[in-house]
Amino acid sequence: MYDELTKSYQAQSDSLLGIVPGTDGIRTQALADFLSKGFPTKKTEDWRYSDLKALTASAFEMAGSDADPEVPAALSETAARFVFVNGRYRESLSDMGELWQAASVRPLVNHFTASEDRAGELVRGQDAIGLLNTALLRDGMVISVPTGVEIDDPVEIIHIMTGADAQAAHTRHLIELGEAAKLHIVERFIGDGSSYWTNSVLQARITEGGKLAHTRLQEEGANAVHTAKAHITVGAEGSYQACNLSLGGKIARFEAHVRLLSEECVAYVDGVALASTGQSHDTLTHVSHTQPHTNSDQIFRTVADARGKTSFQGKVTVDKDAQKVEADQSFKALVMDRTAEANAKPELEIFADDVKCSHGATVGELDAKAIFYLTSRGIDPVTARQMLVSAFTAEALERVENDSVRAEMTERVDAWMAKRADV
Amino acid sequence: MLKINNLHVEVAGKEIIKGLSLEIKAGETHAIMGLNGAGKSTLANTIAGRDDYEVTAGSIEFEGKYLMELEPHERVAAGLFLGFQYPVEIPGVSNLNFMRTALNSVRKQHGEEDMSAAEFMKLIREKAKMLGMDPDMLKRFVNVGFSGGEKKRNEMVQMAVLNPKLAVLDETDSGLDIDALKTVADGINVQRRDDTAVLLITHYQRLLSYVQPDFVHVMIDGKIVKSGGKELALELEEKGYADVA
Question: Which residue of B90, B107, B115, B170 is the best one to mutate when testing the A interface, meaning the one whose CB has the most A CBs within 10 A?
């Protein structure tokens, strides 16, 4: 591939050798795969809706770690709060709360052993974006909740990028839930106006009866590229409930890869994306039903303003022996302007014969009749539109259990509409 | 209160209202009767300010203001209410939230403070009870899953909450069984006072037995062709539109 890029990423990866003990082997492998694969192009089916020119023009250096940014207030009461600045864990800004008493918590650097035994836990990645995260990983949180322990308040992980022009952060978080353990991770992404790249991976293993809620609030700076992946496996009677609110960045992409590995487990993967002028929000989900009696449900709602773009690719696979599976998927997009774009590509690959799978995708405009009805009751048109968009997106936020987190998300949807009206 | 003068309205380039004049004074109840396609609903929606209905000539004055200069929500603040022939379903917005936002929007336009939640709940419960609406329906999404009759009843609750000076009720009687019709008629009669007015738009004489109008107008092909007292409604019912006009 591109010489400059190759040289830079090779050098960056090499400079990390020995820094995170136990990862040199997988790091080197990932880099080699990355170099041979190269970045996805618009011809790469999974990436057809995201324009990655910003990533291929020149290399992103590793972000510096000396900045001292303001940390916004938490969305809710938290069990703990971990702050990452430019991709690096910042202990002085974090708050361990009481989580350490109930669960094992440590930064990624201290997780692996020199023997590389544990490195096998790392998802190596399939495309260049994921592989590069592995080749350049350095920091992240490792949280392991023991059997039977339920952490009620969310654990907030906040990623802050500042003064990071042409710099990137490749964070990697590892979550493990023991039997019947419960955890709510809230991931937040914020940043300033610099043209940085956030490339984050969260992987989680949910064992029998474990319940993981994963809420994402993506509010990157206006010039940022945001690529993130969640790799989740769910054991018997376990559940994974994800909700992604995508608001920031210039190019934003979230992928959820969920494997339902045992009977009676379930995945809820929901999301809302609001694309302002010039923004692209892309979501790819892949829910894989490998066993009978596994269920999944996905609800996505997106709104795109003038020259904004939202895309959804939702893939559901049902293996041959995975009978009695129920998998539903609903994608609805609103376009607020003729120049807005919404793409939907549902994909079902079903090899079992006794399954119930459904998918629906619609793209439309705000209902003029509904606007007239609301205004004919005295409600001004701006508020009327806001009410309709809020109602439209509410369904996709409903499964966020924590009331104050959900309220914060709803408020951001309303604020987006209010800001839009000011322009 | 309302003065319509030589009104012409086009919908999608086609003239539907073709020179209609009508005056309604405070304390009066008028009924406009006519067959489908006569332009009755177009008239109602034009008064309320639907933006795809284009007024090409004439004027509508309401309480001394030219309505064409006001947005739909401003017309409501001025005291106008349209009861819809087909009330719109709004999934995701609860009836309570809808009515409270509506009432407070009107108060805001009048420079008044929001009504407190407690005060509002008291008001809406009282109006729902008066109109025989199950209080549980207040929590449901606006008109979603409501029967035809329930939707019309919901319109009447909204009217009662907003307490307009002029209520324009478009086919409010359609889809109602006799009990619902009586309840709705009671709701309209409560709204008739010396300082208010009602314009009923209807196909049939049925509603007019319960809400007796002071004036009846016959509308054919975008114009009022005949006006009279309440006996005109009975005459129409007996002889049909062709003979009366």
Answer: B90
